[in-house]
Amino acid sequence: MTAETSQTLDRGLRVLKLLADTDHGLTVTELSNKLGVNRTVVYRLLATLEQHALVRRDLGGRARVGLGVLGLGRQVHPLVREAALPALRALAEDIGATAHLTLVDGTDALAVAVVEPTWTDYHVAYRAGFRHALERGAAGKAILSARQKPFGDPGYTLTHGELEAGASGAAAPLLGVTGVEGSVGVVMLADAVPERVGPRVMDAAREVAEALR
User: Fold this and answer.
1) For 47-65, how does the pLDDT look when each residue is reduced to its tens digit (9 = 90+)?
2) pTM to 2 decimals?
3) What region does 26 belong to: left with phi over 0, alpha with psi -120 to 50, or beta?
């Protein structure tokens, strides 16, 4: 800690991170041990976070992340979208296909930013807000591939006809961005994705990841 930082805020943020990393919640004693502070400090932190609905405690006294974080999370999408747009525009223009940034939303893949090429006669209509199961489509499968290889580069994913008949997709996951799980990809009307598209999508995913770090 430095003179310019708040110890109490730091501890509160650490509480939220600890709770976010567990599915079953944590007791005051467990939090006290993990933070290296006494139980009284933890009680005060939890009481403050509860007032803002960022933490809730169940009947057994275990603390969990509260629904208030959803309101904060909704504000993240516009920021992520703005950071990703330059790379998406370049990708769409270069490939001549609709480019998109997709983030995880529960068990779904949610398109939060979409850029269509300006010079093509036709392209796939793909809108921000479109969602589908993670197990279908290149965008979702790219995210799942990153989960399966958390310490390596899973490369890119290709699909055909999984979300729209006659459309092919290519996507690569965002890697090394804390708190953001997603992918960058393109969708095109083609029987197969041209060979150069996969590596180009990976480059765009790296550009977006850099912008978000």
Assistant:
1) 999 999 999 998 888 999 8
2) 0.70
3) beta
